[in-house]
Amino acid sequence: MKTEKRILTLLMAVCLALGALAGCSSNEEASDGGTAGTTFVLGDTTFNAENEEPDVNPHNAYSGWACIRYGIGETLFRYSDTMEIEPWLATEYELVDELTWRITLRDGVTFSSGRALDGQAVKECLEHLIEVHDRARGDLMIDTITADSQTVTITTTEPRPTLLNYLSDPYGCIIDMEVGITEDGIVVGTGPYIVTSLVTREELNLVKNENYWDGEPGFDNVTVLTISDGDTLTMALQSGEIDGAYGMPYASYPLFENEDYTFSSTATSRVFFVHMNFESEIIQDDAVRQAIAMGIDKERFVEDLLDGNGYPAMGVYPDNFSFGGDAVTAKGYDPDGAKAILEEAGWVDTDGDGIREKEGQTLTIRWLTYPSRQELPLLAESVQATLGEIGFEVIINSTADHNSIRVDPMAWDVYASAMVTAPTGDPSYFFSTHCLDSSAVNNGHYHSDELEALAAELDETFDTDRRAELAVEMQQIILDDNAFVFCSHLQMSMISQSDVTGLVAHPCDFYEITVDLRPAE
Amino acid sequence: MTGTVSVRRQKIPKNNIRRRLLFFLLLAGLLMLAVTFAEQICPYDPNAQIFSTLEPPSAAHPAGTDRFGRDMLSRILVGLQTSVLSTLTLVAIITVVGTIIGVLCGHLGGMVDAFMMRVCDVCLAFPGLVFAMAIAALLHGGLQNAVIALAVISWPKYARIARSQTLALESTDYVAAARLAGDTSAQIIFRHILPNSAGPILVTAMLDIGTMMMELAGLSFLGLGAMPPTAELGNMMSGGRSMLQTYPWVIIGPGIAIFVAVVIFNLLGDTVRDYLDPRNSRRQSSANGKKEQEK
Amino acid sequence: MKHYVVRRLLQLIPILLIITFLSFGMMRLAGSDAVLQRMENTGMVVSQEVIDAARAELGLDKPFLTQYCAWLGNLLRGDMGTSYISGQEVFSTFISKLPATLLLTVVSILLTIVVSIPLGVLAAVKQNRLTDYVIRVASFLGNSMPNFFVALLLMYFFAIRLDWFPVISREVSLQNVILPALTLAIAMSAKYLRQVRATVLDELSKDYVAGAKARGVKFSVTLAKSVLRACLVTVITLLTLSIGSLLGGTAIVESIFMWDGVGKMAVDAINMRDYPMIQAYVMWMAIIYVCVNLITDLSYRVLDPRIRLGGAKS
After folding, report:
1. Of chain A residues 12-51, which have a CB less than 8 A from chain C?
2. β-pair partners for A194
3. What does each of the 295 residues of chain B score in pLDDT, given as a tens digit?
């Protein structure tokens, strides 16, 4: 008995010690809130090197996203809510000839270093950008830049109708190259907040830019915390340690759907879609592709598996694009129609096992996908059931190894991925990366002469309306061929405590912390 | 008062142990029966996505439904089958392989020991994830390959435990006496070392059942492990992770199933250990015990 | 003795060579590379030229052996390279993660020992009585709950319900280490406790315990002096394994508690195919295991002088 008592005493002592330590902690916490002025703390799941955002230097990988999202840098042009180009640091542009653009800069804008924004500053910044940033160099195709007080004249090596779109990409943030880029990747921009310190994948501290050109920023200090775990993000917002959150898991949404929190949501051009493998014999059958397209229950995927946090997709682009949403038509979920089509094409279930056959071949498709986007395996599992009812056998291979499998045309029939289809708001990107003979990820080797011709025309068309028309035609071609099936556009949401206003989700996903972010009255 | 304990223990009648053994065998038998006939006893088709989604437990769905609108109870039963069978296979492989290597190393010593222990170092130190990725790429996904990957990573643990037990036993007087009496290595290993080190090894093995269920699920991230729509308990738990606060039944149901399996196998393991313990059964024939072990 | 230690440490060299080569080779087998992984994470497709340029910059376009030799050559000159992902120096990144991992390891091991040895002994002494069953079932509970589940429960109760700790606790301090250490200790205690119980039971049934009783030695004295000593071999073996894996980091717990240790770094590096970072991690693990095992073998010897160290049979 004695030993038992001793042991119990020991255990209690441990508990007490834990309690005492915890007690100290809460006291310390209380005295910690002594920093001057108002502070906004944003928890973000993506601000880390794994997403190619190790710092806030726009000339490094995708760090421009952090630069623009957290209110440090601004671009010459920006996207409106309908994803159209509008002036920002620039006020207007003139297309002198097919290769020459003259851009007029806004007066009265200064970098937070105090230097005024002029043509020379923009020239220095862009020249450095295309020198060090491969992707930007390829996108912009800049030949020369000449500065003349408040105007910049840019010539391109080829006609570049999308130059302004690319200049609006986060890498186009205009930074003060006289101050330069510190070793930690800190830069000086024109935005409402100024970086004071940065620790990669941990935190970014910002202070208000007192001399901001477009109004007074709402908070004195802003802190961005990298919280890579979704559940930790949830609890941090619940406990009030962060004021806003980006990247909240959908399953946590119900916890915040009350008056204590504010939601802001929008459809983004990130889309869950499937590629058909035209090297695969079974997929070459038009009826099979059509039946697959008609056998995916997009509504249910969005409603049940994304908890309503998405938008069933028609084509490549979401509704808020002028050439997106309903501008094209795609087959809806129609299991009976799909059955009839298969029946007609000779796919019949002869042996009664629920799977159709034709000439000795069973209707089996290999569905390749990957688990790092957690919705993709869910989509696969949902499709497995709905296609199963039609008479398909779907074998899922959800693997981290998909990058090496998808280049082997014999190893898969259908490949589901989640990609951004219009990062610059312009239609050409998706087709040139996915659907053409020259595309980097046209792994299903889809080919359409008509599409190639339209793509060539798109490359040379400057007129925005004509570009939109072409985009619609091109989408319709790949949809009619059932070469790709677009399932759902991702909804992006930001959640903030209700005592904050102005944390608004934007369809291009670039703008988070803006001058409008402020404490609620 | 405290002194009575050790005396009392010696008085445990063999009958008592046998009764407990039967009881836990019965429980384990029931579990295995449920596992074997999971498909027959589950109330609904575990893969049918036909109910409304994320319904809390009710009379119709005692464990609720998941995000696909499938009956959780059916999935838990079928998941138990997948998990228990694959985990038992895995644990059996690593226990046997690890013990053989560990005992041989401890007994033989010298170069063999040094070499095998360095191999263990390499295996333990090597990041399992890297290995699992390579397996996933070479052999492709699937539960079988996940078992292979985990087996290759996990045996050294048993080898280390078995070796340390062997080293400790080798230095006991009775092994020294046996050696003096001219017993061969094989006799020493089978008569003295294996029976005496079985306890800690068995306990480790039984405890590993729960851990391994989760580790098998952990690999599904790489595409190793059960592919949809196969139900698997570990996957069900980690897949429901974000729903802990909002739809807790999605994660607690499979959790309880794992717990029950772990409790049954561990209590059975303890009892088998008591039963096999040479000091509890000196006068009993060990034939019975061996049979139990084979099961 | 000194000779033995030196020899064991010298074995580290071939182990390091083998293990780094293996990991290099296996990452190659695993397919994909840092460039493709970055593309997957950002969801943005870049042109083949940009992919090729990025590969060339990292040296990924060269044959496998050339890459390994280049890495090895740099290592011999004391340069562990820079991360493919963050672009920062591997060595300094790695060193910056160590304090967190070391603190978490020490605290969770201490918690585990403090909980598991007394409870394990108690369960053994009360074998098959209510106390024993309660302790054992509790240990099964600890054993069958996955890490993330324990972590989220602890965080929910202590940080949200009771508000004793902050959710975000990145600073490496004794106060912040408690929840992550407790998470790890719960799972480990469950294991240790059961092993201690099994060992104590073994010891209690040995003749010397009855002999001591017959000679009138108090049971508590026997327990403290002989039985506990016997437990140590078991506990030390377990510690070898735990310390090794703890020093290797625990990615899930680290990421939930935002505890900036080597575990999450390693998993991220592996997922992103960040070869230089993986190599540093693999080397670290090899060094740990060799050292910890050496210390363990030495301590067996100290505990029981009859146990031989390597070499010839006694």
Report:
1. 14, 18, 21-26, 28-29, 49-51
2. A207
3. 333 334 344 445 667 888 888 999 999 999 999 989 988 888 999 988 888 888 899 999 999 999 888 999 999 999 999 999 999 999 999 999 999 999 999 888 888 888 888 888 888 888 888 888 788 778 777 888 889 888 988 898 899 888 888 887 887 787 888 888 888 888 888 888 888 788 778 877 887 887 888 788 777 767 777 877 888 888 888 888 888 888 999 999 999 998 898 888 888 887 877 777 666 544 333 333 333 333 3
> A138 burial class (0-12, 13-18, 19+ CB within 10 angstroms)?
middle
Residues 6+ away with beta carbon under 8 Å from A286: A345, A482
Helix axes C12-29, C64-76, angle to 10 degrees: 140
Q: A503 and A390, same structural domain?
A: no
The token duo for A309 is 């946090």
Residue with tokens 């002592």: A13
Higher-pLDDT residue of A195, A81: A195
- Are the C-beta atoms of B262 and B91 separated by less than 8 Å? no
A399–B245 CB contact, under 8 Å: no
For chain C, the C-alpha Rg in angstroms (whole number) is 24
3-state secondary structure B45-67: CCCCCCCCCCCCCCCCCCCCECC
Instruction: Using CB atoms, list chains with 3+ pairs below 8 Å to chain A.
Output: B, C
**Main-chain phi, psi angles of A276, to 5 degrees:** -95, 140
Q: Which 8-state DSSP code applies to residue B291? A: H
Range of the domain at A303: 267-492
By mean pLDDT, which of A79-83, B62-66, C30-34 is the weakest?
C30-34
Q: Which chain A residues are closer than 8 Å to B48 by Cβ? A: 385
Radius of gyration of chain B (CA): 22
* Same domain membership, residue A351 and residue A429: yes
Q: What is the CATH number of the domain that holds A251?
A: 3.40.190.10
For Cα atoms C223, C225, C226, give the angle at the middle one, nearest 5 degrees. 75
Say yes or no: A199 and A301 in one domain: no
Residues A461 and A513 in one domain: no
| Number of domains, chain A | 2
What pLDDT does residue B57 have?
Answer: 93
Show which subunits contact B, needing at least 3 CB pairs below 8 angstroms.
A, C
- In the numeric block, the tokens 């369960």 are attached to C123
Q: How many residues does chain B have?
A: 295
* Inter-chain residue contact A234 with B245, CB threshold 8 Å: yes
Ordered by where they begin, the domains of chain B are: 36-45+60-278 (1.10.3720.10)
pLDDT 10s digits, A275-331: 999 999 999 999 999 999 999 999 999 988 888 888 999 999 988 888 888 889 988
Contact criterion met (CB < 8 Å) for C168 and A236: yes
The structure tokens 């070479």 sit at B138
Q: How far apart are CA A348 and CA A204, in angstroms?
A: 61
Token code pair at residue A235: 């609890």
Q: Indicate the range of A29-43, A137-151, B147-161, C2-16 predicted with least confidence.
A: A29-43
Which residues in chain B are closer than 8 Å to A378, comparing Cβ atoms? 67-68
Q: What is the CA radius of gyration of chain A?
A: 26
Q: Which of C37, C45, C115 sits opposite A433 (nearest CB)?
A: C45
- Sequence-distant (6+) residues with CB within 8 A of C282 are B125, B126, B127, B130, C19, C20, C23
Cα atoms in the 13 Å half-sphere on the side-chain side of A34: 5
Q: Is the dihedral of CA B204, B231, A394, B41 positive or negative?
A: positive
Alpha helices (H) in chain C, listed in sequence order: 2-10, 12-29, 34-42, 48-58, 64-76, 90-125, 130-144, 147-154, 178-204, 207-214, 219-222, 228-247, 251-256, 262-271, 275-303
**Per-residue tokens: B105:** 């190393």
Min distance B55 CA to chain A CA atoms (Å) = 12
Do A188 and A99 belong together in one domain?
Answer: yes
